[in-house]
């Protein structure tokens, strides 16, 4: 199985490929801040077999969101709460989409059964 969702050559968005220095440069966040965010549970990068942090495109997007919240003057505890709520909201939205799809399938099956 491949880590690449398509033929573009880009790794999957959740695949950790960037070391901490590269992630810091790409995100504009200091290396020490990355470590601090991890200690506070705001970010959980993958680890290589040797224990090196590996940041993914998803991690970089999360870092962008963290930076926006820091720039807005929100403390780390507040950022953690906001990120958790946003994650919960995304999960609920995905579950709602799945339920709507299942509901449509059930309605279609009921219509088909009634028309026979």
Automatic annotation (TrEMBL):
PROSITE patterns: HTH_MERR_1, HTH_MERR_2. One of its GO terms (molecular function) is DNA-binding transcription factor activity. Residues 96-116 are annotated as: Disordered. It comes from the Bacteria. It comes from Mycobacterium szulgai. This is MerR family transcriptional regulator. Residues 17-85 form the HTH merR-type domain. Keywords: DNA-binding. Residues 104-116 have a biased composition (Basic and acidic residues). The keyword DNA-binding applies.
């Amino acid at each position: 199985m491949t880590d690449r969702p398509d033929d573009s050559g880009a790794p999957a968005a959740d695949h950790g490929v960037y070391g901490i220095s590269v992630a810091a440069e790409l995100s504009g966040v200091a290396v020490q801040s990355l470590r601090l965010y991890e200690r506070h549970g705001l970010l959980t990068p993958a680890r290589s077999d040797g224990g090196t942090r590996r940041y993914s495109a998803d991690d970089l997007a999360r870092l962008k969101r963290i930076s926006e919240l820091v720039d807005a003057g929100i403390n780390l505890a507040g950022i953690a709460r906001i990120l958790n709520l946003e994650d919960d909201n995304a999960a609920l939205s995905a579950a709602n989409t799945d339920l709507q799809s299942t509901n449509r399938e059930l309605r279609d099956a009921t219509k088909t059964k009634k028309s026979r």
